Amino acid sequence: MGMSAGAVAEPTELGLRERKKRQTRDAIREAAVRLVADRGLERVTVDEIAQAANVSPRTFFNYFRSKEDALAGIDKDEIEETCAALRARPADEPPLSAVAAILVGRLERKMLDPQIQQARVQMHQSHPQLFGVHAATWRNFERRLAEVIAERTGLSADEDPYPATVVAVAMAVVRSTISHWQATENPSAATLSENLRAGFDSVARGLTPPAPPPEPSGPSPAERSPTGAV
Amino acid sequence: MGMSAGAVAEPTELGLRERKKRQTRDAIREAAVRLVADRGLERVTVDEIAQAANVSPRTFFNYFRSKEDALAGIDKDEIEETCAALRARPADEPPLSAVAAILVGRLERKMLDPQIQQARVQMHQSHPQLFGVHAATWRNFERRLAEVIAERTGLSADEDPYPATVVAVAMAVVRSTISHWQATENPSAATLSENLRAGFDSVARGLTPPAPPPEPSGPSPAERSPTGAV
DNA sequence: CGCATCTTTTCACTGACTGCAAACTTGTAT
DNA sequence: ATACAAGTTTGCAGTCAGTGAAAAGATGCG
Question: What GO MF annotations does this protein's record show (chains A, B) (predicted)?
Fold first, then answer.
């Protein structure tokens, strides 16, 4: 088949085969996301996704291991980037602060595209099963970060539970805060970062309880501690 | 069929129906865990589990929504019990301590049957997908505990992120510690509790890093610190 | 063109899971 | 005891997810 007259602007590094494959993959993913966003996860069959993407059902499984897999967007590169960012923090910074900083930064960057991010979070809220697909990846993510913390503290990631604990706790703060932030009518999107920082502050203070709001019964006014940096 | 001579010591609060249901449920769960621990998740079919539990395959699905569901370590009753236990802690105890206490207690009680429990933990390690199924349940569990913490602290679980954070962090400590404990050759099963307590202590101290062990670079092997713990 | 290689499709199959109606068990009022 | 209401288990028939194998169709290349 001769090349069509309109020369492709792209420097066609990849052969026709590779291009077609990518195209097919994208078509399937796009069809899956569109259909699921429309009707919900269990109201969409693989056959329908395949049909919408103009491929056979079997081809769907040539590209994705499961229906959920087609909806995932997990990036190995991001793990590496985040590890590098953690390594780049000042060496004398306390581990929790360092992890907090990179996780908050990551979130802030992601929130720049609220459309996609909101949709993704929403999807995880309404289909917690999707969490399962990512579980292995997140576990790996935590492990890698823990290794970096181990380097920074001079501990052994295998022997000492501390690095893993710091990372796990930090992740928990992020998850919990996002969930809480989603659940409340959030006045402004910007406050997520503030909430995160407040959460990390609270952990850094050993999770001592904050002063409750003024109760009608017996107000015992403990002084509010000034919320500084993490 | 007459009751056997050995009269049941239990004060039969529940009718025969309810008792049989629990019995069936337990039988299915036990069969599922045992078989999966033996052969791995994908080498066991629902039919086999049902057969091992002496019920029809259809009955399996009357009790559990999926194969994975039968392996979930938490049910509604347990959530209620744990919430009650948390409510029963001294009112002046710091929230983190209270949650730590009930979670450690729960774990210790479960570890009384190391066969099953070990298998269960192992399963989660080798089949991270199971987290997906648990995600919804655990989320609910966390939510209920957070509500109790909210009661205890006089905060609003909806408005203040603190209760959810405490619970989420505590859960993270437990998960992380179990995982770490599993990964290391554990000399004795009893040290899990100690590790958990150490982890919670560390959090209570704001996750400040512990002192690192002597560095291997210099050929001056300082005496090993008499670390009883970890 | 002709051949090796890769991709897609078809087919047949196992296993998860659901709805429905029949059969059976238990609680209870008579 | 008996009978009836209500709950539980089961078999059956069917849909959908997911896999292996081999035929059929593209593509790359000499």
Answer: DNA-binding transcription factor activity; transcription cis-regulatory region binding
CB-CB: which of B94, B158, B202 is closest to A162?
B202
What digits encode the pLDDT tens for the residues B98-157?
999 999 999 988 888 777 777 778 788 878 878 877 788 888 899 999 999 999 999 999
The Cα A49–Cα A42 span in angstroms is 12
Share of residues in chain B with pLDDT > 70 (%)? 83
Which domains, and CATH codes, for chain B? Answer: 18-70 (1.10.10.60), 73-204 (1.10.357.10)
**Hey, how many other C-beta atoms are within 10 angstroms of the C-beta on A178?**
17
Neighboring chain A residues of B163 at a CB cutoff of 8 Å: none
CA atoms within 13 A of residue B61's CA, in its CB half-sphere: 6
Give the amino acid at A222. Answer: A
For residue A47, give the nucleotide whose C1' atom is nearest its CA. Answer: D16
pLDDT tens digit sequence for A142-155: 999 999 999 999 99
H/E stretch holding B164 reads: helix B162-183
3-state secondary structure of A136: helix
Q: Is B44's Cβ below 8 Å from some Cβ in A? A: no
Of A91-95, B72-76, B171-175, give the lowest mean pLDDT range. B72-76
CA distances in angstroms from A9 to A12, A17, A18, A19, A149, listed in the order given: 8, 18, 17, 14, 46
Chain B CB within 8 Å of residue A183 CB: yes
Which residues fall within 8 angstroms of residue A181, CB to CB, at 6 or more apart? A191, A192, A195, B161
Query: Percent of chain B beyond pLDDT 90?
Result: 56
CA dist A205 and B35 (Å) reads 45
The angle at the Cα of A142, spanning B105 to A166, to the nearest 5 degrees, equals: 55
- Whether residues A129 and B128 touch (CB distance < 8 A) is answered with no
